[in-house]
Amino acid sequence: MSEEIDHPDYDGPSKSQLKRDSQALQEMGRQLVEMPEGKLCKFDLPEALKEAIQVARKLKSREAKRRQLQYIGKLMRSLDMDVIKDTLDSMDHQSQTYRQHFAKLENWRDQIISQGAPAIEDFVALYPHTERQQLRNLQRQANREAELKKPPAAARKLFAYLREVTE
Q1: Residue 78, CB half-sphere, CA atoms under 13 Å: how many?
Q2: What is the pTM of this model?
Q3: Where are the domains of the chain?
Q4: Longest Cα–Cα distance in the chain
Q5: In whole angstroms, what separates CA 145 from the centre of its chain?
Q6: Which CATH superfamily is domain 15-91 in?
Q7: Measuring CA to CA, how many Å separate 70 from each of 2, 40, 77, 110, 112?
């Protein structure tokens, strides 16, 4: 924001800024409406917003859908948008957050395969609900496949398991 909030003549955000904020909320609402049901379940949304999203999904009329998106934007004004935005970003495969998370998981997979028990213990310390035995089995299988020059099926399974545990 370019204006000083402490300035005595500050009347709040401009009408244009309020409109931009409202449009941003509506766009975020549109993403929620177009999102598959399985991904939408990952959001902790109030019941009224969930119902509004379900109604918007059923609407066929362009104008009715536009009005419903405005209503969804209005409902979203009272929510903590940072949590919803972060969740949307983590689901967006092109987002920086997703790429960082993906790289971190690849790093964990490589450490577990190469270092074995110490890396497994470090991972379990961060994610206590992880099954050590499954990590050990996948780590041994991945090393065996590497020695026999086989395709890295166990390494892929290990990555999928790490992803499941961290999400």
Answers
A1: 8
A2: 0.48
A3: 15-91, 96-166
A4: 74
A5: 32
A6: PSPTO4464-like domains (1.10.60.30)
A7: 27, 19, 11, 47, 48
